[in-house]
């Protein structure tokens, strides 16, 4: 263990079991001052109640709580939404998008207090260690990185609870809390417990925010979203900040059981993991943006946007936020979004968020051209020449084979 030249460490602290044990462990093994950093990215306010006191009781010398909610949705979530990124077709990247802003704010605190090192509580099995440390490398490569889960011999929840008990450090954690959860304004994820076997169905305990779609209201509810340049700017005609819009849509979506997925995903480190993710407001936003794209983007532009989204999903999932490729993908998406303005009505019903009405001043949809009735703008005979040229290579190949 390398302890030399480390006098002050800034820890990404949540108040949970792992980071509560990390503070005394750092002090014992590195003999240095530990500053706790807490990111408010929209998690349950109860998780932040008394978090400074908890950090100090665990042995921290200071605790910095930073409100990142608006910046998180405006500068991280909305740009990713413009690209249409979905990891492996379904995951709306809730945890992945939050890690770079948390790590960036942690670096800022470390530079402010004159720390020598940064520490996180991510395990050696997961993606978050890569996301945190890639951000550290991009923004403050001079700072040392400490990852206790790759160093200590505490390997279970029982061991962590016993470690804290021996040091008389209070914790609200218990053996009964069998699920691992990550929560922010965009989503909540649940892993572990019954979910560790994909053969098991998720039970009611695996869902936190959303009503079971089977028990959702029998009457559908409609919500109108206003989109400007690929960003949701108003809900039901009320102009709102990105975070405010998400808050409002989270409530509506959760009420109708919208935004649940139960998936097995490929982690960056090579193993598969299973989780239940809830993204109610985000699912409504995504469906509204896709509806506007259907009106505004031509075929080649839509195809390119899909390619951007696929690439962006891996860039974000893999923790490559502060890289040239992310900036390049984002610039392209912003260019495509210049004319993505419109209004969409989404119907919420029994787990579904369906776009039932959509309009845009930039729409390329022409009822005159698309009608099955009589029109005066389209000459059907023109299609013959188009088809002959479109299929010319096939015609030449067949003639040669004859």
Notes on the protein architecture:
The relative contact order is 0.13. The strands form three sheets. The chain has a five-stranded parallel beta sheet, with helices on both faces. It is 42% helix and 20% strand. It is of the alpha/beta class and 402 residues long. Among the domains are: 8-72 and 94-178, 3-Layer(aba) Sandwich (Rossmann fold); 187-297 and 340-359, Argininosuccinate synthetase, chain A, domain 2, CATH 3.90.1260.10. Helix 4 packs across helix 5 (94-113), helix 8 crosses helix 9 (280-296) and helix 10 packs antiparallel against helix 11 (324-336). The protein has helices at 17-30, 45-48, 51-58, 69-83, 94-113, 128-139, 157-166, 242-255, 280-296, 299-317, 324-336, 367-370, 382-390, 392-401; strands at 8-12, 33-40, 62-67, 117-119, 144-146, 179-183, 188-192, 221-228, 231-235, 238-239, 260-266, 272-278, 342-349, 352-359. It is built from 14 helices and 14 strands. It starts with 7 loop residues before the first strand and ends with a helix. A hairpin with a 2-residue loop joins strand 13 (342-349) and strand 14 (352-359).
Q: What is the architecture of one domain at the second tier of CATH?
A: 3-Layer(aba) Sandwich
Instruction: Describe the main β-sheet briefly.
Output: 5 strands, parallel
Give the name of the CATH superfamily of one domain: HUPs
Which residues sit in consecutive blocks of at least 5 with pLDDT less than 50?
A: none
User: What strand order characterises the main sheet?
Assistant: 3-2-1-4-5
Number of DSSP helices? 14
CA-to-CA gap between the ends? 75 Å
Strand content: 15-25%
Q: H/E element string?
A: EHEHHEHHEHEHEEEEEHEEHHHEEHHH
- Total strand count, please? 14
